Amino acid sequence: MTASFDLNPQKLLSTSEPATAMEIKLRRRSRISSAMRYSVLLIFGLIMLYPLIWLIGASFKTNSEIFASPSFWPKDPTLSGYIKGWETSTPYTFGRFFWNTFLIITPKVIGTAISCTLVAYGFARFDFPGKRILFMTVIATLLLPNVVTRIPQYLLFRDIGWLDSFLPLWVPSAVAGDAFFVFMLIQFLRAIPRDMEEAARVDGANTLQTLVYIVVPMLMPAIVSVCLFQFMWTMNDFLGPLIYLSSIDKYPVSLALKLSIDTTEAFDWNQILAMSVLALAPSLTVFFIAQKYFIEGISTGGVKG
Amino acid sequence: MAELQLKSVEKTYGSGFKAVHGINLTVQEGEFMVLVGPSGCAKSTTLRMIAGLETITGGEIRIGERVVNDIVPGKRGIAMVFQNYALYPHMKVKNNLSFGLRLKRRPKPEINDATQDVSKVLEIEELLERLPKQLSGGQAQRVAVGRALIKHPEVFLFDEPLSNLDAKLRAYMRVRITDLHKRLKAEGRPATVVYVTHDQVEAMTMGDRICVMREGHIMQVADPVTLYERPANAFVAGFIGMPEMNLVDAVLTTNQVPHITIGDQTIRVDEGLGERLSETTGPVKFGIRPQHLEVCPQGTENALSGTVTTVEFLGHEINLHIGIHGQIFVAVVPSDHLTAIPKRGDAVALKPIGHRIHLFDRYSEQNISLAGL
After folding, report:
1. Cross-chain residue pair A300–B133, CB shorter than 8 Å
2. Buried b / exposed e across A189-215, counting CB within 10 Å, b at 16+?
3. Which chain A residue shows the shortest CA-CA distance from B97?
4. Residue A298 to residue B89, Cβ atoms within 8 A
5. Helices A179-190 and A94-125 meet at what angle, rounded to 10?
6. Which residue from A84, A87, A230, B306 has the least number of CB within 10 angstroms?
7. B230: exposed, middle or buried (C-beta count within 10 Å: 0-12, 13-18, 19+)?
8. Residue B89 to residue A302, Cβ atoms within 8 A
9. Which among A57, A80, A50 has a CA at the least distance from the CA of A268?
10. What is the predicted ipTM?
């Protein structure tokens, strides 16, 4: 459809001729329409964000005020929730739990990125005997509910002697155990033309060099998304640590939050909320840092479309 | 630089489909060889087999003295320019150019010199710091050529490199590439080139020799003039030339001089056709280029009479489509040769220029009018 007149108010204003009645009418109509659109968006945005805003507000409230007023703005802001919450009722501070989470997440995210890229590259670019069956197996594990494999996995790790260590939490993922990420990268790779890889082969690159110098840079937006998802899901994972970790000194943040609910008789909600805010912070920070990358998308440009 | 040899090269896919049927081709050192043919004729597959991007299932490929059947692309001494350039999108132009040399761990000064050298030849010096997405089609094309040039390969392979450019730029780049080839030859480092295209204008203007392919077979390998004037078979005759050659079923009889019967009209042809024929009678395909038909008034002796069905006015010339017994002949007439532009429905006569006639065996499609040439 081609527009017969320009609705951009800026453009209308910039013309030196005085506005006609028609133009004024159109300008007003476009202003009203955008005002409506923005208010609807704003209202729904606020409704979605309200729990988060309330959470942050409530973490500065006293325990009694939390249940007294539905408003998110604290009457007498206090940091006691943060100070006491950080100390916890255990011999360890929350710093220890954050460190534990870091120790799980780091090898898991790095391992996932490397292993899934390798596996996806293999599936997307090479023909080998049994490829179809193997690929179907990968997809089948994707459809399998996680819960089903929990017990056999637990028994397996018990026999290896990995219980109460971080290993069962990150090793499976670091050897491309997450079929979802493999699948995601394969789909992304399929959309990238092979010409660049062929050009690299003609330039003398071997398979691994082609992967590292050519494929990975083009795949970067997808790899960043994989890392991001893995980071957030691991940060939020509760069941895994609950099953495999028994000593408190190895608890990650997700378990430690539950800890403060268990050990005190009257729950100090402001402490729990304060620590929840802190637990959210890394995920949000990582998300906003990485956002730039996966929007940038560098896969296009080398090939004329 | 080296000679490239293909000996009974075959390609059969896993599905059993045979794409290339034992082709034999020798590209001389420093020669510009064009592979041309309609889509699906396996010209690109052949090129990719030479590059090593496609395995061969039979025969032998030699570059220089080496059999390269089982050698990886990077070690064959070839460089390739791809249809869509295939520049590495995340690397600056200079890094795109030097990627191959960096992989070989050449010393830095050497890499810099080579990059400067190539960018000067291709006039892309001011583009070195840009990313591929900041280049126009023509610029990207030159960078892609540069990436091949910098390696001083034994054989250059081009896979329809100009098909993504607009018509004007294509004509310009065509000249640039042939100039480059000539310049390299003059500088004493001749480049052996295999160039794939589906565009016969590119093929005719660029190639030292042209290899016309069809469905995995080589139809003819020859220089452009031979290809145009002495096509070995009806396919080559129809493929080369614009508008394409008129090819119609006819019957050849010889009664002292050859006579050609189309429908119920028979014309006798002199001008030495008789001496050229390797067969004297039988069903044939009669071939005459649109430029070699003389449009005469109706009733002219030894001309085929027909009716104008379409008139295409192109300015300097006119394409006349003339129906004769249900078969359409196209004749190209320079417009200043005509006093009045014929109209649809006009009755005219067509007189083929005798020494330009080609006759092909109707079944084998081989040219039977090449004897003594």
Report:
1. yes
2. beebbebbbbbbbbbbbebebbbebbb
3. A203
4. yes
5. 50
6. A87
7. middle
8. yes
9. A80
10. 0.85
Interface test with A, best of B45, B54, B87 (most A CBs within 10 A): B87
A192 and chain B in contact, CB less than 8 A: no
With beta carbons under 8 A apart, name residues in chain A contacting B140: 304
Residues in chain A closer than 8 A to B80 (CB atoms): 198-199, 202
How far lies A282's CA from each of A242, A276, B198, in Å?
21, 11, 57
Q: In terms of DSSP bridges, do strands B66-67 and B58-63 run parallel, antiparallel, or are they unpaired?
A: antiparallel
pTM for this one?
0.81
In this predicted model, what pLDDT tens digit does every residue of B62-93 receive, in sequence order?
999 999 999 999 999 999 999 988 999 999 99
| CATH architecture, range B243-361 | Beta Barrel (2.40)
What is the token pair recorded at B42? 């396996």
Contacts of A193 in chain B (CB under 8 A): 84, 86
How far is Cα B93 from Cα B140, in angstroms, rounded to an integer? Answer: 9
Q: State whether residue A201 sits within 8 Å of chain B by CB.
A: yes
User: Chain A neighbours among B 112-141 (CB < 8 Å)?
Assistant: 131-133, 137, 140
Report d(CA A47, CA A61) in Å as an integer.
21
Cα B36 from Cα B235, distance rounded (Å): 12
**Alpha-carbon gap, residue A232 to B10, rounded angstroms:** 53
Q: Would you say B241 and B289 are in contact if contact means Cβ atoms under 8 Å apart? A: yes
pLDDT at A301: 36
| Nearest CA-CA distance, residue A78 and chain B, Å | 50
β-bridge mates for residue B213, sequence order: B218
Mean pLDDT value across residues B21-32: 94
Q: What is the CATH number of domain B4-229?
A: 3.40.50.300
Dihedral pair phi/psi, residue B209, rounded to 5°: -135, 155
Contact B89 A198 (CB under 8 A): no
B72 chain-A contacts, CB cut-off 8 A: 201, 206
A129 touches chain B (CB under 8 A): no
Task: Take residue B128 and report the two structure tokens written for it.
Answer: 């070195």
Q: Indicate if the alpha-carbon torsion angle A118, A121, A124, A128 is positive or negative.
A: negative
The full set of domain ranges for chain B reads 4-229, 243-361
Interchain pair B86, A198: CB under 8 A: yes
B51 touching chain A per CB within 8 A = yes
* Fold: same for B4-229 and B243-361: no
H or E stretch covering B295: strand B293-296
**A98 burial class (0-12, 13-18, 19+ CB within 10 angstroms)?**
middle
Q: Do A214 and B88 touch (CB under 8 A)?
A: yes
Best residue in A128, A203, A213 for a mutation probing chain B (most B CBs within 10 Å): A203
Query: A140-179 pLDDT, tens per residue?
Result: 888 888 888 888 999 999 999 999 999 999 999 998 888 9
